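Can you give me the bound-state structure? Components:
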Amino acid sequence: MVTIRDIAAQAGVSTATVSKVINDKQYVSPQTREKVLAVMERLNYAPNASAANLARRSSKTVLYADRFYKGLPYANPHMFDIICGVSHELSRKGYRLSLLNLDAAGKKPEKIMEEAVLSRVADGIILNCAFATPQTEKLMLRLDYPHICIGEPGFTSIMSWIDTNHTLSANLAVEHLLARGCRRLAIIGGQKQDKIFMERLRGFLAAAEKNSLAIPEAYIAYNRPDIRDIFRSVTELLGLPERPDGIVCTNSLIMAGALQAVKKADLKVPEEVSLIAFDDYPYSPLLYPHPTVIDIDLFSLGVQAGNFLLKRIKDPTMLIQTYTALPRLIQRDTTRA
Amino acid sequence: MVTIRDIAAQAGVSTATVSKVINDKQYVSPQTREKVLAVMERLNYAPNASAANLARRSSKTVLYADRFYKGLPYANPHMFDIICGVSHELSRKGYRLSLLNLDAAGKKPEKIMEEAVLSRVADGIILNCAFATPQTEKLMLRLDYPHICIGEPGFTSIMSWIDTNHTLSANLAVEHLLARGCRRLAIIGGQKQDKIFMERLRGFLAAAEKNSLAIPEAYIAYNRPDIRDIFRSVTELLGLPERPDGIVCTNSLIMAGALQAVKKADLKVPEEVSLIAFDDYPYSPLLYPHPTVIDIDLFSLGVQAGNFLLKRIKDPTMLIQTYTALPRLIQRDTTRA
DNA sequence: CTGAAAGCGCTTACAG
DNA sequence: CTGAAAGCGCTTACAG
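Here's the bound-state model for the whole set.
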């Protein structure tokens, strides 16, 4: 393996000078620089990362801490879009993203993170908020370790986090339907344990109230993630004496079930019923008419998370707690243009 | 930051001894070991990874080289299931998986990989076969660098690789349909540029030939990935004077389109027409009847890739070129039980 | 603008 | 079973 000493020797300079050329630091005369670069090129040299890490006390690496179990990418590709965004941003800035699998047998996630942090394998960590506990928080604060949670931690915390604003998304959905002339708005969601759904419901109700819109009990439907259930649920809704003319579907499976029900009821979309969903994925491409959707760009959420973390690594005094990714309307054919 | 010297001092031993305890190497008396472990615990010590990497000339890290662009996880969650499998296997063995994003602006993927390999950030590399070029091969061979391609390289190569056997999968599909009494088999696929589809077509034809089954031209349909096209295509097929009684759909979108067409044609599934697809994802959960599918466990392909690479890292004399992941039949309702 | 030298925090033959 | 010491390949004040 060729080392910095080989380069120095061949170029007739000191290793210090080679280092300066490598890192583009301090003044090096153009001639010297050229000479060194030429030798590096000729000998096919790349500086040893471990040695550089040790000397500069930084690994140019960031961890992404989560469980990575079988099938997860099918159940939640969104999470990997975030990872792609993070990787994109980091690689642009000369950093690398390393996965920290919290799924290890016999070891608690907190312990795994603690070891990783203390061993300085990385300069910072991005963690799924599901693994943000008071204990982890204490660790981060004690070491003043750069970190950011994906999602708001489930407890009162001064850790940094970034999240999508589901309440705001629901607001947007309601405003869109109202702007398109809908007046009787219903919401079809998942189960009450579903935190994201409940936030969207909150946003939905808040927006309705702001617009002095009464929402009858029957206009709020909870469902198991089964398209048959959803179909029944929406069919019932459409059979009401005063049926809704605008339906907020909290994901694309619900949109799929709702469209089936609307079709069965022989109602025109969007003339008689307008529909809007939140999640474009995965069923949207299959649906007719093409659903109008509130979309959240999770790749760019990842980019933002990476960007924040790098800033924090460079400037330890930076102290920001939250970022919020903004939702965006994609107008298609289930609401009036 | 607490270092190995602090531990040594507190425990009243040398750093060499602490190192032996950390790495569970060489004989250390039980008493000494306990004492050292106690101090490590008390001081909340974790060995500095960079220093250890440098000293032992190994980073306990493996790279996964690919592009990680926006939306990729929706288009290809399978790839991330592989990554999860790799991560699972590596973390079990004390290794970490680091993403090497080949998408960097202005730099060629080959150059990015070369730098990463030469800098010894990792002890081995897993790369998408799309980025396996003769130049990359030369690098791996020259350095004798542990590597494995995901997918067979597109050129004659002695690199190591692992792949799913699409030809074999298609064989399985045909055998299944024949065993269920189908005699007129059609295949609905993507476009001719689609390498995976073409391999499946090859397997389909080979299996047909082996079973002395003639496949009329009209029984082979190419389609753009648009459910309308597929619907038309299958409708045409079912309108043939001699219509097929078994249809191989090369992915779940095609299965979705085919089921629509079969329904429209008022044919009974699986009595009059049986259908089988390859990809359970993402549309299967939406479909009725539930599709019978040939499934490939990509998580376990990832596990195998990781496992192979670790063995190769430990034993440089190991020289295996290929692994193949085996497909598996999931019997559901679109073929006879 | 350049270089000598110390130091980063470990591991590893080797000697005892 | 334990430790002194060299060494891994860089970076970084500091002196010149």
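A couple of observations. The mean pLDDT of chain A is 94. The radius of gyration of chain A is 26 Å.
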